[in-house]
Amino acid sequence: MRSQASMARDDREWVLTNGLGGYALGFGNMVNKRKYNGLLIASDSSLVRTHILSSLEESISQKGMQFFADANHYPNCIYPQGYTHIVNTWLRPAPCVLYSSAPPNDDCIMTKEIFMSDGKNAVTIKYRNCGKSPFTIELKPKFSLRNSHHVNPSGSFADEASTGFENRHTSFRIWRTGGGPEAFLFISSGEIIPDRAIYSSVYYPLEASRGYDSVEDLISPARIRVTLNPSESFYLLTSTEDLKDAMGETMLAENRYKTLPLPTDHPDKIAPLNFLAAPPAKSVFSLSQKDYLKTLEFACKDFILQNNDLIAGYPWFGAWGRDTLISMSGLSNLEHGPQIAIGILKKYGKDIHEGLIPNMFGEGGIGTNYDTVDAPLWYVLRCREFAKENKELFAKACQIVLCYMNSENHPFHMDTDGLINIRPGNQALTWMDAKIYNEPVTPRWGKPIEINALWYNALSSIIELAKNFKERDIRFGPYKSSIKDISSLAEKVKKSMEAFSGPRYPADRIEQGIPIWEIRPNAVIAMSLPYDFANPAEIERTFEVARDKLLTPYGLRSLSPDHPAFKQKYVGNARQRDLAYHQGTVWAFLMLPFIKLAKKVFSARGKDALFQKEASRYIWHLRNSIMNGEAASIAEIWDGVDPYLPKGCPAQAWSVFALFEAEHISA
Prior knowledge:
By secondary structure, this protein is α+β, with helices and mostly antiparallel strands.
């Protein structure tokens, strides 16, 4: 009964976010496979996340027939197998699942939709009777009440005193004793019946495959019973707040998504009864091009925080400086995006320390570090892009450049040739930052090509901005330089970068004066930037080699397959994955610099129309995954060989923003 497209969504994840760092995350078949999957993962203002509500046991009874609509992984089985009752699943604009009895019949049809509130740690689940007869549904909400990165050990809830429960008849409160997390659940109708139950040994296979703790206990303090007549709906809301108008909040949450484009076969467009009688013929796209772009725009907004920042990715990343500054170029195409960008630049500007920007703030401020050589340079470029008339941010950009020119306190310095040189050590300062036992996998000591291209572009940006403000000198603390001297330095850097030039492809880096001839995407990043340091012939050669050796349907490989260190697959435990992370694994965000480089090459050839055709071909698979409803977001990475299944973080900011910006470049 299920369509091929719907079955393909079973292993693809949906995501909802609330602008605070909180989220809901799950698979199309509604089976939790990660410890991060759940209906409500709350976040506080410092991005400490608490896993609140995992899932719901859902039992449907009608005319003497009963079935479960939910499903749980256990170490040796999946029980119950509610996914066998799924007729179809839609991942956007919000997850919607169409259920029926087995075999499907007109009497018993139900939709389940999930909506997340904006600006609140609250989630709404809506059930609607779309059939011809009444049915009764019993729900048991399964709470986790834990840190999002951990699992509940066996026996966590064995002691009844481990949790507290307060029944309020149309709502209840549950909390961990001893000052732990608490949650509130509200219902629109029906009854709440206290009925404490523990779900032991719930298993998360994806955590097991990644080498992490993968088994936990969940608790349900009560069951909820409600009978729904045909066309009636039932709302359940879970929140970390004791809401005064919970049902009003459910309406706000639902309306947040109902204004977004719907797939052509969505239950709000095709009555489920009609869907069951004659399922729509399989079409190539479930969204028009216009609706796809609106959906992609909303996917970008998933990562925007209300406190002037971006989440690097859901579910396990927080706010990362490098990721934010790379992603935010796409804000220029987003409604109110330039204003959001200014807010982000001001926020990060307050945390500049000796010219450095936090690479990550860390949850709750724990783990904040400045381990990045490129994020500050991206900051200068974003000031050029978004803050050409903002003198406050110009001063921040000048601070960065002057500190790079003069400071000796960093693990890198400006060499006598004007290039930025990374000193050997145990720090991984570029975007290729994987480490094993505190040692970088791809250390990239010396002079990396994209870092020095960013340096040249940062100097050129300061010169351009200084002209806007009619400034002849720049100052920060004890440091001072004239724009004339900055111009001379930029020319010196451009001349020194000739050392990267090769007969086929530029060097990835220069170590102690020796070029390292590895075909990596860093040369693509370098040559995609606004100010060119290489001649047109070298830019074209770089594009052609990258197209032939690095380009895949989902992004660029981080290393050519011809290299002996190339890793075909991103699999295994943390160590095994980190060994492959930047050694051939495909990164979706790299599609954007590749398309920017392609635009330069095709424009130089006078073939802009051909560029649009080729760019559309490059991003076709990423675009198609959202247009046909198989993906709700864009993942972080794919395998280096035969990339098909998304891997790494399932919803990555710079991946989504890269596709969004690429669509506008190629339009």
